[in-house]
Amino acid sequence: MTTLSHLILAGAVTALATVANANEGDPERGAQLAAQGDGSGAPCLACHGADGSGNNAAGFPRLAGLDATYLARQMLAYNNGERVSPVMQPNIDNFDAQQIQDLAAYYAAMPVPATTTSTSVSEEVLALGEKLANQGDWDNYIPPCSSCHGPGNRGVGETFPAIAGQHPNYIRSQLNAWKSNQRNNDPNQLMTAVAERLSEEQINAVAAYLGSQSATAE
Ligand code: HEC
Ligand code: HEC
Questions:
Q1: Using a 6 Å cutoff on CB, does residue 72 contact ligand 2?
Q2: What structural domains and CATH numbers belong to the chain?
Q3: 111 phi and psi, to 5 degrees?
């Protein structure tokens, strides 16, 4: 083997080993960390709830049942500045990569709570949201959310998070965060391209509709 290919192979093996380590989170350690907090911030359950269901009025997302790799990537994004949130970031900035994996494993393993957000919006608004979510708005080059977020918008793998049953206030805040450059970690800027084309009316409608949907398939 030439030195060059040897080096490349060694590099690939190291990269693989790093990925393997990074994916191993311990949910029991994660539970302890969630209850303790990182020493300077608040414990996770103070905001995200003991069952990981979050809170619509306060804008705290549901974490329970989201994909572990997705969750870990988001926590790292707060710490490296790709996601800006003065409320969330101080709670995890003292955790190292392993502790973040543990927290992610803990929340990913939690049962998905029933959708609790009651919608006070009209049938028309819900219908507009439903159309966007499942058919898109091709006149404005907006693909259906479900084309990426999967059947029922319940998420696909580690890349496309579940958005059905997520809290409307949180969905709205994230779409606006992409528009205003406060969230920049989406792969290939897939979400930036979608969010930029959504009107305020569409954002409110799709958030209300998704929040009213079940996060589980039954
Ligand atoms: C003071 C309230 C508060 C505390 C405590 C808190 N969070 Fe958060 N968390 C938030 C808010 C608000 C957001 C949404 C921020 C934004 O707009 O990006 C958030 C977002 C998140 C997200 C992104 C979810 C997604 O769907 O992308 C993760 C993951 C997360 N928090 C994990 C944690 C963990 C783990 C802890 C404990 C170590 C924790 N949070 C503690 C308020 C809090
Ligand atoms: C072309 C693919 C694509 C389409 C279409 C798409 N999304 Fe996304 N969406 C993504 C990806 C990828 C992410 C994860 C971004 C990241 O890792 O930060 C995401 C994340 C999100 C999140 C953040 C969830 C969380 O837990 O923080 C929301 C909210 C969201 N999308 C809403 C929508 C809505 C509403 C639509 C339809 C109007 C839509 N998306 C259409 C690819 C897409």
A1: no
A2: 3-109 (1.10.760.10), 123-211 (1.10.760.10)
A3: -60, 145
Query: Which residue's CA lies nearest to atom 14 of ligand 1?
Result: 60
Tell me, in angstroms, the distance from the centre of ligand 2 to residue 192's CA. Answer: 9
pLDDT confidence of residue 115: 75
Supply the pLDDT for residue 217.
79
60 contacts 170 by C-beta, under 8 angstroms: yes
Determine the distance separating the centroid of ligand 2 and the alpha carbon of 23, expressed in angstroms. Answer: 22
Q: For the chain, how many residues are written?
A: 218
Question: pLDDT per residue over 58-112, tens digit each?
Answer: 999 999 999 999 999 999 999 999 999 999 999 999 999 999 999 999 999 999 9
Spatial distance between the Cα atoms of 54 and 212, rounded to a whole number of angstroms: 15
Tell me the Cα Rg of the chain: 19
- What b/e sequence results for 155-166 when a residue is b if at least 16 CB atoms lie within 10 Å of its CB, and e otherwise? beeebbbbbbbb
Closest atom of ligand 1 to 78 CA is 18
- pTM, two decimal places: 0.91
Ligand 2 center–CA 32 separation, angstroms: 30
**Model confidence pLDDT, tens digit, residues 171-182:** 999 999 999 999
- Number of the ligand closest to the Cα of 133: 2
Q: Stretch 193-212: mean pLDDT, rounded?
A: 97
